[in-house]
Each structure stands twice: as C-alpha cells, then as structure tokens.
Queue: 4 jobs
Job 1
Amino acid sequence: MKRIIIQYGGTGDLALKKLYPAYEHLMEKGDAFEVIALGRRFSTRDEFLSEIIRKDAPSSFTDHLDYLYYDMSGNNAVSILTDRLKALCGESDEVEFIYYLALQPSLYEIAIAQIQQVDNQLDCICFLTKKIVVEKPFGFDLESARRYNDILEKAFTDEEIFRIDHYLGKEFMQNLLLMRFHNDIIRRIWDNRTIESIEIIFDETHGVDQRLGFYEKIGVVRDTIQNHIMQIITYLTMSEPATLTPKDIAVEKEKVLRAISPIEEFHMGRYESLGANSGHIVHTPTYAAFKLFVNTYYFTGIPIYVRTGKMQQEAKSLIYIKFKNATKQVMHDDSIAENAVIITIHPELTIDISMNLKMPNTSWKSKPVRFRFNQSETFGANTPEAYEQIVEKILQGDKSLFPTMQEITESWRIVEPMLKDNLPVEVYPIRTLPRFAESLAKENGFTWFD
Ligand code: BG6
C-alpha cells in the first residue's frame, strides 16, 4: 500500500524543526511513505527544497518529498489538491492518505471541509484509506474543541483520528509509567502517605521567535499547560491501568483529569519586548505559575506546583517529587534532608533518587546523596526524538501515544478559567523568573528545586 502524508503547514516552524527531521530518519530506517508539503511560502518544489531542506539531506528523503503551492482560501484549492494527489497515487490500487494538520486551530474547519471534498473526488480511483492528524492545541477553548471535534468525527472515524501531544512520544513520559508500574518499591512510596509535594518546572531559554504569529493567538496556557503539563500530571498520578494498552491507559488518565481541582494561585507574565525594531513585541502571556491538587484517594492533599514559560536564564525541565520527612522529628535532627525523586528532562534525561547516607569521619552525620540513572549512558544516545515515535505510530495505526478527546476535553475544562481575557499579566525582564513564581513558592513555604 502506498502511504502519502499531506503536510498542511508544510513550510511552518513545526514542519521544519520537528516533522521533516522525523520523516527523514524514518525513511532512512526504511519506512516507506511519500510526503507532500502544502504551503504558500514558495511557488515551486525546487524553491522549497533549496530554501528549507538541508543541502546534504539524503535522497532517501528528498526523493519522497514533494511540494504544492496551496492557498486554502483560493477558489480552486480543492481541485488543485485533488489533481496533485491523483498524480501521486499513480497506478497504485491501494493508497492511504494521512492528512497532517499543523495549522492554527481556526483553520481546521475549512481544512476538514476541503479534505472531505478531495476524498469524495478521489474515492473512485483506488482503494483509499485515510487518517487525519491534528496538532495541539486542539481547539482554542472547550467550546471550539468540541465544535472542531464534531466536524472531525463527521468526516473520520475515531480510529482514523490522531490528536497530537508530542510529549507522549518522549522517552521520559513513557519511562514515568514504567518506573511507576514496573517497580514494587516505587509503587509503595508513590502516594499521599509518602509524597509531600511535586514541582513541575519547564523553563525555556528561547522566546516565541519565528512563531510569533502563531503564538500571539495561543499564549502559554494553550501552548503548554492545556496539553503537555496536564499529560505529565496524569502520568505522575494515574492509578495502575489494567494493561498498558491505549484504552486502559486512557481510562486511568481520564479519571485523574476529572479529579483535578480548580487551579489555585494562578499568575501569568509576558517577557519584556525585545524592541520595536526587532519585530518581536509579544503581547500574549509567555509564562505562568500555579498550584493544583489531584483529588483521588491516593493523591489528594499533595500540592502540585507548576511553573512554565519562555525567555529564562537556563533551560530547565524537571519534575521534583519531595517526600515527607518524618525522620527529622523522629531522630531529633533538623539537618536530615528529605528524600526525593528528581526526573530531569532537559538538558538530559536523568532520574535521581536522593537518600541520606553517612558522611565519612563523622559521628552519625548523614548527607543527601544521589543515585542516578542517565538515559544516554545506559542505553546510548540514539533514543528516537518524540516526533519520530509519534509519526511511526501514526503510520502503524497504533494509538498508544495520543490523547483521547475525553482527555482533551477535561484538560480544557481545567484550564478554561485561566483563559479569561481580563487576567493580569506581569511583564518580566528577559532571563529572569517572574516575581509571581517566586511568591508562589514563598507563600507555600518552599523554594523551587535548583
Ligand atoms: C511545543 C510548544 O508544543 O512544545 C513550544 O508549542 C515549546 O512552545 C515546545 O517550546 C517544547 O517542546 P520540547 O519538545 O522542546 O520540550
């Protein structure tokens, strides 16, 4: 069967930075598929290739990469796409179209309507199967997500729809589940009897950069909190699924999302503009910090503190799980540190367990020491990028790395109060932590893990 990925947003940031490298690796590994990039930036394939594809890209990739100047609002958009797809199908009698929408959510409606028309015209030329891939954020808020979904589900079956959150393709996410559910010792300590608090820190050094046009309409809540952060929370706190199959995992994740209490102490900021002449004046929030609780039996009472955003001094992505420290009282020694599990995602994937052990040449003095797992030291540096894993699953028709519509709906419900227009937005100088993130920690009696 011939497989063709129809790449909407084919000259956009996501396609260039993440998708084309993923396609290239998969094709090099031997996965057979064609890609047709749709865009308005270039008029010809040659121009597209010479402007944005690496000069030394292997022919195993470029031979399978086509380009079509495509203006969705043009009068004859549908017939232009239909003709090109017909040509790509050639004489094949079995073809799969994978429509990949890397677009602003507001363009979904028109894209899907056009896809339906293209499909109708092509159905007769061969045996046609189809899939549709939609990028995050899916929708703009709860109402629009439901509306887009209705449109999507009228045109595609659930099996054919792949809703993306590329964090599910990340090794650390998959490791979280295995670390929790393949280790008896971890299972026994992973609940509110033992855990005191959780910090999730996602600081990025870059700004919105070339994505300004997209990001301005989105902002930090839709960009990372509604999706990546909510998914991380589900993986950290879900109960054991009956099996590690997509359906069973989804059941448990949905329970967690439904148990999340209203967000507390929420604050947002945007970084100071880089100057009128830089073309980089950001009006939308780029940083946020807040606290929430997952009110399930085993997690209620554990505060989860989140901070996430752009233009920070240091790129730091980590999850800090702090355990209760009864030992301090029991041993009458305030210097005894708490135990902790630290999952670092950036700059490299490591998992540390912090324990107190004896300092040599002391009389009963302990010091926290770390036991470390380092992904690349243990397994080599060849772990596939998230998007590679995601695209591979799409090609295979395996839905294990995709959030369900119920998860997406619940996540919108949780973040909806943070989307109101009239919320205050603090301006923070670039490379500094917004003041509200410091205050959140201070008011809750902790300091962010460093
Ligand atoms: C994307 C967001 O989904 O995730 C970006 O749109 C963010 O703003 C990015 O920078 C972070 O992903 P990663 O894979 O670089 O951690």
Job 2
Amino acid sequence: MPHDMTLEQFFSRLWDDYTAMTPQASRIHDALVADGETIVNDHVAFRTFDRGPICLADLEPHLLALGYTPLEPYDFDAKKLRAWGYLPPREDQPRVFLSELKCSELSAPAREIIDELVAQIDPARIASPEVMWAGRLWEAPTWEAYRTLAEESEYAAWLSIIGLRANHFTISVNHLRRHDTLEKLLAKVESLGLSINASGGRIKGSPEVLLEQASTLADRMPFTFSGGRVEEIPTCYYEFARRYPDADGRLYQGFVAASADRIFESTDARPGHAD
Ligand code: OOG
Ligand code: NI
C-alpha cells in the first residue's frame, strides 16, 4: 500500500486529531515546553476490532509503507486483546503499539453490535493512511449498545464511539532534562490539576523489566448517542515512558504486557472499577 505521506506529515496530522480529542495533552505538552523541555514521542497507540476491513492485518500495511518493522506480538487474555509492537525507521520517530479486540471471544449480542458497526465501513477509506485518524467509520451506536459492549469489554465500548485514531501519544522521559524521572513528571502533570491512572500503581514496570510507564486518566467529553442521549465519555490519554538499557547496553525497545494491561484502563468509563 505505497503512499507519499512522510513520517512527519503522518504524525503531525495524527497529533492534530489527538489533541482535538485530548486537550489535556496540549496542556501537558505546552507546560513542559515552557519549562524548557524538548518533547520526543516514545510511541503512539491505536485500537481496532479484529474484523475486516479494519483488523490489525488490514491496517498494518500503512505502518509498513511508512518504514515500520514489526517487533513482537503481545497477548492480553483477560481483556480479549492481541497486539503488535513496531519499530520506526528512524530513532527520532515514535514506536507504534497496535492492538485489536478478539471479537469471537465476546457474547453473541456484543458480537452482533460490532458486526453492525463494521458492516457500515466503506472499504475505500482503508486505502489511505488517513484512516489511522478517521475516527468512527460508522454511525454512533445507541447508549444501550454502548453499555452492552462495556459490560464485556471497556475497549470495545470505547472503540465503538471513538473509532480509529491515536488513543495516546507517549512522552519519552529519557529525553526530558528537568523532569527526568516518572515521579517528577507525574508531580508536574498533577500540578496542572490532571489525574493519573492508578490501576496497578501509578508507575507500572521497573528498571528490572527495562521500562517504566505511567499515564493520565483519559479526557472526557459529551457524546451524543444514536437516539439523542448525551453522556460524558472518556476520550484519549497521555502516557509517559522511561526506557533502560539491557545487558548489552542497548535501550530496551519493546513493550511490557503486564504494564500495558493496566495502561489500557486509562480509558475506562469508571476508572478503578475494572476487573
Ligand atoms: C494501549 C495500552 C498499552 C503500552 O504502552 O503498553 C500501552 C491502549 O490503551 O490502547 O499503551
Ligand atoms: Ni502506550
């Protein structure tokens, strides 16, 4: 799927869409820049359903066309998710984490709701890399359908209303000068009045697993469901990551499944109430 979008154009468009959904990200970004920091992205993440034409294998060609290399797969049994990590063609560009929901593991009613959403997708939309920030490719679901999905999968419910876009960008703590530990950075984020995802602890991972991560709780905005009901829903969040060198002195490049499992919960409708 060759296309002529440069990496810079891709991430600039992705960032614009993301910050429109996630005003807290601009606030954090700008506050750090005001402190003299240079922001480098560690990674960005996308979510999708494992259903054509938007399953992981259908979206991956856009990453490959940008020069990305698949690194390794991850599995999240309890959350019914699988994912791949990708390495960028240049070190100054973000890694990518792309996950998909294993729809066949949901109940028949939940599967039917997802099938109805996915059936509305115009397959022509998938041909352009812009699909990666296309948002919903289907009509808004009803509140009842959203709740049915949420009972089985917060991820499914979130995806049904937010659609395809970066669900977070991640600041590389390694590249910060003043806020050079997760705790210092989290204190700064909290000083802006923003909340941290505490599921599994504020800081997930450790130097021993070569990766420490933390994230905000997703921003919230009113959403009009099909039928007219308006409810406040979680949108997207910001993540912070600090990588450590391995035994060969090479900075760890992968993700850590046990930590990722908790970071997913940054978009839970009722944070802290997850399984
Ligand atoms: C992805 C959660 C996992 C990480 O860095 O491990 C993750 C998501 O919320 O879709 O971002
Ligand atoms: Ni992440």
Job 3
Amino acid sequence: MIRAQVRGIGHYLPERVVPNDWFTSFLDTSNEWIVSRSGIERRHFAAEGQTTSDLAIRAARAALDDAGLVADDIDSIILATSTPDLTFPATATIVQAGLGMTRGFAFDVQAVCAGFVFALANANAMIQSGQAKRILVIGAETFSRIMNWEDRGTCVLFGDGAGALILEAAEGDGTVEDRGILATDLNSDGRYRDILQVSGGVSSSQTTGHLMMAGKEVFRHAVDKLAQTTLAVMEKAGVTAEDIDRVVPHQANIRIITGTARKLGLPMDKIVVTVQDHGNTSAASIPLAMSVAKAEGQLRPGQLVVTEAIGGGLAWGAVLLRW
Ligand code: ACO
C-alpha cells in the first residue's frame, strides 16, 4: 500500500516581531487582555512589499534543504492560503517559478485556517492514486494585509508566516505502524460562513476587504468540531487517545487548544503550542508549529501525530499520520 510519508519540513517567519504592547499605542487594549483571552504574546508581520509567495518560497527552500532535495525533485506544489499575492494566478505557481521548478503542477487550496489540513488530505489522495510521488505542501499567509486596525477584537489575534512540508510516496504494510498519513477527515458547513469572513472580494465588491469575526460564535463551534474530527481520524485508523504521541493543533487561541485537549482526554504535554510566538497565522499555523516542534525534538520519526484545524466556512478537519 502506498503511503504519503513526511520527507522534510521547514518554515519562515518575517523578521519584524510585534509584541502585544505595540497595539496599546493606538487601541484600547492591554497585554494582559490579549494573553489571558488568546495566549498570544507576539506575532510576526511581513515587511512592506513582502508577499505571501515570498514567505512561502523561503519556507519551501528550508523544507527542500531539510529533505536533501532540489526543486525539480518535486512533482507538485499545493499551497494553502487565504491571502494570495494576486487574484490569479495561483500563488503556488509564483512559488513554483520562484523555486526554479520547471516541471510538475501547482495550485492553491482555500479553506482558511483549515487550509493546511485540506491541502495535506489532497496531497495524500494524489500520492495514493499515483498522480504524484513528491508533493510540497505549503501553508503561507499575510493576514496583516486584511486586518481592520480599528477592530481590537480581531487585529490583535493574527500574524504572518509560512511553513512547508514535503510528502513522498513510500510502500507501507497497510497497518497503523506504517510511517505516513494514516487517515484524513474533512468537513465544512457554509451555513456558518458569516461568523468569520472577509468583507470584500472579486465578484462582490472588487475590494480586498477586512477580516470580521464573531469571536464568541467561532469559539462555540471550535472545541466540539475539533474534538469530533480528531475522533473521526482516530476511529478510521483504529487508534485511541492513548496511542497518540503528539497533537499539532491549529494555533488560533490557547483556550481552544486546551479545551479540545481536555475534551479528548489528551494531556497538555502531548500538545504542540506555538500560538504565544506566532499568533494565528491561519493556514500557515500547523506547518509552522510542526517545523518548530521538529527543530525542538518534540516531533520524532515513528511518533503517532494528529493535526486538526477549524476556520472560516466553517471548514474543519484532521489528519492522522506517523511522523
Ligand atoms: N482588548 C481589550 N478588550 C477587548 C479586546 C482587546 N483586544 N477585544 C475585545 N475586547 C472587549 C470587548 O469589546 C468586550 O467588551 P464589552 O464587554 O465591554 O463589550 C470584552 O472585551 C469581551 O469581549 P468578548 O468578545 O466577549 O471576549 P471573549 O472572551 O469572547 O474573547 C476572543 C474574544 C478572544 C476573540 C474569543 O471570543 C475567541 O477566542 N474566539 C475564537 C476566536 C478565534 O480563535 N478564532 C480563530 C479560530 S478560526 C480561525 O483561525 C480563523
């Protein structure tokens, strides 16, 4: 049985680090409020002119270096973003050109904060069906470009960054001992599209728009739906919470992360947490967290890892893999 195995990982964060105190110069807020409600202490913002593809290319190069590969060893790029450089072409093709990759195919996936999980599931399906042998799966965002700086309930929560993971086809036995992706679960429910959305777009207002969020409503859905999708992948693979070595959750908010862990009966020492340093980087948050965790020795070959995310749509899902 063909499995999509992790071959390499890397990330890039823009140089500018913005601590919570920065917001107090123009908003009625405080470090204490932001930390207590979200767990966020700082985030990175892209420099003027720095685009999502710029961040993605740097993360992709780091992943290629980690894997000992060059761009032309890759068959496909799947890039998850809600903040593309342009309306079209896909940011993935800009990354393809930026890496000097002259073969294969590249496209974007848009599932907001769940984008990386959706991209991983797509990459897994393409590898299992034989369409590609090596896929660069990227999550890259510049959410600072869509903030309403007068809305203290949202602009303090997000950051910019990129992470990239290389998946490679490998033969497995078809058991949960195989390395690679073991189960995926994707969901969306467009009835809830209004509670987290950007107020502009090509065919509606011809403007970029700003992020708007009914925070309490999103929170209300998050823990239940994240627990449900995490249980779904565990059930599909026939494993239990005790078997899980590491959880890499979407890094939106420490209260959602701890609430979901508690609901699943998973101790916090199994949970990778980077939200304090990155804020919510939407589709980039999971590969960023994975890359940091790997560098710190928290993610090691052979570990059973589950990753889960929820975001605008609502869209949510999970992937279970053996690292
Ligand atoms: N500083 C100080 N006060 C603030 C701030 C701020 N930055 N933002 C809001 N407040 C105020 C509000 O105005 C409100 O004041 P009021 O009571 O006088 O009206 C008070 O704080 C409480 O506001 P709430 O919105 O009720 O605060 P809550 O405890 O719900 O926390 C938060 C807000 C952090 C947004 C929370 O609802 C949340 O975490 N929601 C989930 C959001 C999230 O993580 N989304 C991302 C997941 S999906 C994705 O990744 C895209």
Job 4
Amino acid sequence: MAQWQEVSEKSKLHPKPVGLVLQYGTAGFRTNADHLDHVMFRMGLLATLRSINTKAIIGVMVTASHNPEEDNGVKLIDPMGEMLTPAWEVYATQLANAEQDHLITVLKDLVQKESIDLTNQEAEVFVGRDTRSSSARLSDAVLDGVTALDGRSKDYGLVTTPQLHYMVCCCNTRGGYGKASVEGYYSKLSQAFIQLTKSAPNRTDDQKCLLVDGANGIGALKLREMEPYLQGALKVSLFCDGTGGKLNHQCGADFVKVQQNSPKGINRCCSFDGDADRIVYYYSDDHGRFHLLDGDKIATLISTFLKELLTKAGLDLKIAVVQTAYANGSSTRYLEDTMKVIVRCAKTGVKHLHHVAQEFDIGVYFEANGHGTVLFSKAAEEKIQQLCDDSEGERQGAATLLKNSVDLINQTVGDAISDMLLIEAILAIKGMTVQQWDAIYTDLPNRQLKVKVSDRRVIDTKDAERKTVSPAGLQEAIDRLVERHQDGRSFVRPSGTEDVVRVYSEAATQVTRLLNHLYLNQPLH
Ligand code: NG1
Ligand code: ZN
C-alpha cells in the first residue's frame, strides 16, 4: 500500500538510534531530548491510528514536566482529555523500540489487532508543547508522523499540559466542556473564579495578592496571558517567570516539595512545575521556618469545602478523596476520622487516581507532590444544576458555589492554574489564612529518598504499592523496623519514571535512635 511506502520513507528522516530501548512510563516517554526525534515521529503515527480507532481527536503533548531543561518527553491524550488507555501504552512502547526495518511490521500488527480500517478514515491530532528549547523541533517531528498517515493536525504551539487536555475534551464533546481555544479556557476559568469570589466581598488586598513561582516554564507565560481575564480579582506576582533562570532549576513545584525549601524567603506563595500540571503552596513563619502545603493539604482544603457545601445544599452525594501511598498519615487520619470522608489509596501516577475517583459522585484526587483535580459524575453535575434552578436561600447559595466550582475545575487532568484559582477562592470564601489552612492537621515527619540498584524490577508490590511481595524477606525486614516506631509507616517501590527505587518512611517523631539511647536509655539495636 502506498501509505506504508510513505511512512517508511518519512521515518528515515527520523531514524531510531540502534539498540535504544525506552518505555512509555507513568507519564509517557521521558529522556534526554537528543534521543527522542524518532519517538516523536512514531507517536504522531500512533496518535493518528488512535484517532481513527476512537473516531475522536487525540492529543500529543511534548514536555518533560518537572525534569531538567535538557530532557524532553511526550504523552498522548485520549478523547475525553484523559491519559492514554493502558493497552495502547504497550503499543507505544513497541512502536518506539522497533528497529528501523521493523517499524512497518509493528504498525501493520497494531492495525490488524485493533481492526483499524485505514481506507476513508478521518483522523485528527492536536499537538502542544512546553518552553524547552528542544520542544519546537520535537513537536514538528510529531506533526510529520501525523501527516505521514494522512491525518489532520492542529498545532496549539506553546500551551500547558492541562490546556491541551482541555482542548481535546472540548472538541470531542462538541463544545460541551467549553470553547476549544486558550481564550475559551481563560474565559471559562476566570468567569467561574470571579463568580466564586463574589461570595467573599470583603477580601483584603493581602488576600487578593499571590506570589507564583512559574518554574521558568510555560505556566508563567500562560498565567501572564490570563491575568487580564481575571479583571483584578487576583493579583499575581510572578517570579521564576522564564525571563532569566533555567527551567525547573532551583525553582518549581518539584524542587520545593523535594527540597522542602522555598526559592526565596516569602509569605503565601505557590509553585508550578515545568508544564503547569502540578502545584504546591508554602510560606515562611515568623521564625523563617518553611511550611509546605502539598497535595494532601490541598485535597483536604478542597474536600472540606465541597463537603460543607453539600451539607448546606442538602445534597446527598458520595464524596471521596483518592491518595497514593505517599500521602502523609496525618492527612489520611484527618480525612477519615475528623472529616468522615471516604479515603482510597491508588498506585502512584495520576491515571490510577483518576480511575478510582471516577467511582464516586465527587472524587477529589491528589498526589502528595501536588498533581490532582476533582471529578464530578454527570449525575452530580445535573443535581447541582437542578438545585441552582429550583431552590432558594442558603440552599441555592451553596448550590451556586458548587456550580461555579465545577466550572473552575479542569476535570480532565491536574491543572496548576485551575487548582490555584480554586484554592484562592476557597481561602477567600472561608476567610482563611494560609497559616490557618496549614494548621488543619500537622504532617508526620517524613523522608523520601531514591536508591540506585542494578535491577529495580526485582521489587514487586501489592496493596497500592504499600507492601512488597518480592524479593522474599524484604517486607518482613521493613515491618520489623516500622513496628519499633509510633505511627511508623514505610514502603519501597520501583519508580515508574526513573531508574531508581524510592524509599518512603514516616513516624510520629524524628528523634533518632541514638538520641533515644542517650537520653531515654532505650536500647540501640
Ligand atoms: P515515580 O517515578 O513512579 O515515583 C513520579 C512521581 C509521581 C508522578 C510521576 C509522573 C513521586 C514519588 N512520584 O513517579 O507522583 O507524578 O512521577 O510525573 O513524586
Ligand atoms: Zn508536570
């Protein structure tokens, strides 16, 4: 077939380095930008086939998120704005690793397995990219892949990851989710934010101003574009805005979360990551001590707010919070015991959390690192709308706040800009300072580190990665250590994005055994 001939010819312009093996991991492909040209071309091909297969628009985002500037990566977006379905992740890996002379065979196999009819089929792919210097040429390679299979493409250029998810969802729902343009995105979110904050008419200037660390990336650029739409309802002071510093270097959500340190000594502030799908908040207290409000604190604030509104509105909707093993034990305890909300634990990676959150009327999901959002079931959205129309007084007020929250939230994926606006609105409506928010519960002291081992795949886990099943004896050894500490909890798991094993532990105190031995006369063993 002439089509395969063309793909074969064009693929020679994007040659695969012989022997290079990559995997479509937790967040797509990620590695040094110099090794990705062939992967991008092939993901253009894959997205086109997926588009024919689903009869819908598919998205391709070129970014390596919080990784260093030298890296890059790519992830595919499925029709409703969600992450690529797992079965196709396997195809993505096969396609990326096929040696040059096997590429067509692998493609034909896929076409056959998925019964894709290549004759007279329309395909459309949306492409977006972050601000990395390599991203423009790599997104051109994606576009080449789409063209090679006669697909149509729309290049959105520089956009945040969540913005591209939003575009895909808007178009596939024929405008049902919003207008598929950056202006549409800014208008929808800004209007919802302005409506929400009308419920807090006495906001002080202090409450209206927020410092934002843009990680020297796309989030900074887009937030600046969005400011006029907010009509002064939020005054953003951007730093690490890409005008001087390097992407994600000593700034951004991952740096702040992992180093537990702020890029500057500051009051209420938040940090995005390199593609603006993560956010963390923080402040320094009077003693200059740094306080982090991570994804767990964000999930707590949002779920508390929503639950209170449900009660006021008299709406009987099932709300749950979905976390991962990295959620601080204090947050889980507070949510279950004090807030009385259902808490579920999912495997690391937002696609797993997203999936679990879909089981509830309202599913709030956040990874501790600040990646998350809220999902509302169709039925929940309809009930909220109905109450807005049919009720009055306090019930209608609560229903309207819920409706505006739905509009402000990007339900397709975690979105730093949308999350930030929601948090700012909640703080304003509740008249809460960042310090009061922080005081809802106190994090258990915790540590996270990574260990290089020769083969991380020897570690196998169960129970949402909280227990190991192999190698033999490892779990027992962890259990023996953990049981010696009050509120102790620890787990190890192989990373899905780096060639390392991650180790996490937390306990009621961080006093070392040596100090216990010296001062409390406890045994050292
Ligand atoms: P891995 O490398 O599998 O731990 C990391 C993050 C995830 C998620 C992905 C994708 C931690 C401990 N892990 O996954 O939460 O965000 O990257 O970016 O932060
Ligand atoms: Zn990211």
